[in-house]
Specification:
This protein is of the alpha/beta class. It has two domains: 145 residues, Rossmann fold; 106 residues, Rossmann fold (3-Layer(aba) Sandwich). It is built from twelve helices and nine strands. Helix 2 crosses helix 11. The chain is globular. The model has no long low-confidence stretch (mean pLDDT 95).
Length: 261
C-alpha cells in the first residue's frame, strides 16, 4: 500500500452520538490517525426502524465516506447498523476494511461459571438473526436475557447522562433483574455514556461489559494486516459531522469525546 493511502482518514459512524464511545476507544489505541465521525442524529434512533431503512441509511453514509472523504477504513459504531447492514456493506465494498460492533456477550458469559447475563440493546438489535446466533453460541454456558432499552438512546442524544429522569427510567426497566443477574452487556454504543447510572442501579457487584475496546483492537489488527497504519507520529485529528448539524449537536459531540473515563 502507498504511504498516501496509509495517511487517509478512518470513517466512524453511528445512528447518533453513541458511536463516540467507540471512537474514544479507537483514539486511545491509535491517537495518531485522522478520523471522520458522522452521527445521524436526524434519523436516531435506528433501533426502532426496519432493517431495510437502516441498511439504506448506512449505505448512504458509507458511500459518502468512500467517495467524498476517501477513507481507508470504516467502523460501524452502532450495533443496530452492524446487525442490519455490515454483511451487505462488506460484500458491496470488499476493497475497504469494515469493522462492526456486536454485543460483548462472550466476555460476559465467560467471566464466571453459570453466568446470568442481561443484554440491554435496541429492539432491532435484539430481534436480528445475528444476535440470536450469538445467543445460541453461548446458550449452554449460562442464561442470556434480552432487555430492550430504546429510550436510553434518547437520553444520550439529549446529553442527559445523570438526570433524575434517566435514573427513574433505569430503575423501572431494571427492577426485575436487580439481584438476579451477575453481568450486564451494553449492546448499544450509546449506553456506555450512561454506564455509571446503570452500575448505580444494578449495584457494584454486577459486571458491566461493552464492545467498544474489542472493535478498536479489531480495527488496529486489520490496518496492521493491510499495512494501512498511519506512519504519522503527530497526534491525529477528529472531524465531527452530524445530519442534525446544529452548533449544539457538534458541541455535545466534542463534550462526549472529552468526558473523563
Amino acid at each position: 500500500m502507498t504511504e498516501n493511502k496509509a495517511l487517509a482518514p478512518i470513517g466512524v459512524f453511528d445512528s447518533g452520538l453513541g458511536g463516540i464511545s467507540v471512537l474514544r476507544e479507537i483514539y486511545k489505541l491509535m491517537p495518531n490517525e485522522r478520523y471522520y465521525f458522522f452521527g445521524d442524529s436526524k434519523n436516531a434512533p435506528y433501533g426502532t426502524k426496519s432493517v431495510a431503512k437502516v441498511k439504506a441509511l448506512s449505505e448512504a453514509i458509507v458511500e459518502d465516506f468512500i467517495q467524498q472523504k476517501k477513507v481507508k477504513a470504516i467502523v460501524i459504531a452502532c450495533n443496530t447498523a452492524t446487525s442490519a447492514a455490515a454483511t451487505y456493506l462488506r460484500q458491496k465494498y470488499p476493497e475497504i476494511p469494515i469493522v462492526g460492533l456486536e454485543p460483548a456477550v462472550k466476555p460476559a458469559i465467560l467471566h464466571q461459571t453459570d453466568s446470568k447475563v442481561l443484554v440491554m440493546a435496541t429492539p432491532l438489535t435484539l430481534k436480528e438473526e445475528k444476535f440470536n446466533h450469538l445467543m445460541e453460541r453461548f446458550a449452554d454456558q449460562g442464561e442470556i436475557i434480552k432487555l430492550p432499552a430504546p429510550k436510553l438512546v434518547e437520553f444520550v442524544e439529549k446529553g442527559e447522562l445523570d438526570s433524575a429522569e434517566l435514573y427513574a427510567y433505569l430503575e423501572d426497566i431494571l427492577a426485575p433483574y436487580k439481584g438476579n443477574v451477575d453481568s450486564v452487556v451494553l449492546g448499544c454504543t450509546h449506553f456506555p455514556f450512561v454506564k455509571k447510572a446503570i452500575q448505580d442501579v444494578v449495584g457494584k457487584d454486577v459486571a458491566v461489559f461493552d464492545g467498544g475496546a474489542g472493535a478498536a483492537r479489531e480495527l488496529k489488527h486489520l490496518l496492521t494486516q493491510k499495512q494501512l497504519l498511519s506512519p504519522n507520529q503527530a497526534v491525529g485529528e477528529i472531524t465531527f459531522e452530524n445530519s442534525n448539524a446544529t452548533p449544539g449537536e457538534l458541541e455535545l459531540s466534542q463534550k462526549l469525546m472529552n468526558l473523563a473515563d
